[in-house]
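dumping this here before i forget
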Amino acid sequence: MLMDATKVFRRRPRANPALVYTPRKAHEKPGDGAPFAGTTAEFGRANGPIRPKPAAKWGLSPSLPKTALLGRAGCLVLPLAALLAGCAATRPPADDAWTSLFDGKTLSGWVVKCAPGDESRGFWKVDEGTILADSMGSRKHDYIWLMTEKEYADFVLRLRFQAYRDSPGNSGVQIRSRYDDKDYWLDGPQVDLHPPAPWRTGMLWSETRGARRWLCPDAPTAGAVNESMAPAGLRFFFADQEPGWNDLEISAVGPRVRVKLNGLVVTDYDGTGVLDNEAHRQHNVGMRGHIALQLHKKDELRLRFKDVFIRETAPAE
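structure:
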């Protein structure tokens, strides 16, 4: 039976059986022992392994619809066959179509963008062959981005990232974005990376001034999304879990943006009329721009990136 698409995003928040967290007993406070019951924002401080309910084991929830549904603003809730497709690792095939954006040794081709007071922070660096964002122990900073020098329009981006349980901060991958050197702001769409609440990872947010909101799922404010909006079968690995890394693929062709996390389609968004609307045109973003990795304002974050490849594509007919 088909479920009304608008109800998918309006239904009462419901715990996703694929994302049930309990803290590691060795890290429990005296008197603890019950499953972690705090907010998802507090989960990053729980320091425990992910222990799914036996019946779930990161599997698909039988209560969710198995038919493709088109939500508001072109955000697609995909069928099971599409969700399970494409489980290959992010490392691209050895052909000339793919270009590496990170040489494993330097930040050549990248530039740090931030307010003048944060220029000497050194939060973005190369460490052990990876791009490391590390602001642990420091919250007195504004937004700091690591941005490509080159601009891109239509492309497929593949990368791997590693998250840590004791890192409570937020990050994201900005696409088709542009930095304002006067206001110290990066306008454009952002694929969310949120280890404190892993179910948010892969959702699409707009950082564009005048249009800041969730694009997929369609929600007006940062706090308007909940775990029930995450796709069934979502998998997110911390550094102490095999394989220790997460595969992320972002496809942007024309107004369509598609995001896969560990082979699972999290976002399939048709941005016609949004990514090319007045707000995005005013800042010259949405359809073409830079790629950037975000360190959120006032956040303590430790996150690694590697195997960053891009394949530029022809625009859709």
